[in-house]
């Protein structure tokens, strides 16, 4: 690593949508010491519009809701850009037979507060018109309550993947800033604070 002139203590992992799912899974597996190969420690993670639970393993997420009828799986069932039906199709492409609700590789959002304690600082970008909205907000809440420094930004009224839209939206700049500032925030060595969602 020294030959590459980079600091292994400043590795940040991140992704958007399915990429954020992979990043969250890898970070959690690394934290739980389930990665077989030696890796540098992860300084933080940036998870933008993440999927955090396989669609067939979503019951633990629903149980965290005060009322299932207002869950994002219900209120955003036909959301533009990503409906629940499309989410099911994308998830089916993983070809996982009988997904296990306790398999944290595919369900990092189903981890317990005890399992996430001590995880690295986490930035979450969440959009309002997205079936995945609640699992991201619930994950951020659990992380914060477990003592993990967490920075959560919510883009109200915008659908999954809006940043890829051809027409320029005013929220593009905020999206880019959440990522850019999030990396700086992680590297600043933030402390945990109460769960808060920026809108």
Q: Can you tell me about this structure?
A:
There is one protein chain. This protein is of the alpha/beta class. The chain has one domain: Alpha/Beta hydrolase fold, catalytic domain (Rossmann fold), CATH 3.40.50.1820. The chain has 7 helices and 5 strands. A 5-stranded parallel β-sheet has the order 1-2-3-4-5, sandwiched between helices. The longest helix is centred in the C-terminal third of the chain and has 17 residues. It is globular. The termini are far apart. The mean pLDDT is 93.
Key phrases:
7 helices; hydrolase; single chain; alpha/beta; 199 residues; GDXG_lipolytic_enzyme; Rossmann fold
TL;DR of this structure?
With 199 residues, the chain is of the alpha/beta class.
Layout: helices, strands, pairs:
Layout lengths: L10 E6 L1 H14 L10 E7 L10 H5 L8 H4 L8 H9 L20 H4 L5 E8 L3 H13 L4 E10 L11 H17 L9 E2 L1
Parallel strand pairs: 1-2, 2-3, 3-4, 4-5
Protein name: Alpha/beta hydrolase fold-3 domain-containing protein
GO molecular function: hydrolase activity
InterPro entries: AB_hydrolase_3, AB_hydrolase_fold, GDXG_lipolytic_enzyme
